[in-house]
Amino acid sequence: MRRVAKLSAACLATAALALSATACGKTSSDDASSSSSGGAKGGIKIGLAYDVGGRGDRSFNDSAARGADKAEKQFGGSIKELTAKTSDTPADRVQRLTDLAQAGYSPIIAVGYTYAPAVQQVAKQFPKTSFGLIDSVVDGKNVNSITFTEEQGSYLAGVAAALKTKKDHVGFIGGVDSPLIKKFQAGYVQGVHDTNAKIKVDVQYLSHGTDTSGFSSPDKGQQAAQGMLDNGADVVYSAAGSSGTGAIEAVNGVKGAWAIGVDSDQYNIPGLAKYKSSILTSVVKNVDVGVFDFIQSVKNGKPLAGNNVYSLAKGGVSLATSGGYLKDIQPKLDAAKQKIVDGKIKVKTTP
Question: What pTM did the predictor assign?
Answer without folding.
Answer: 0.84
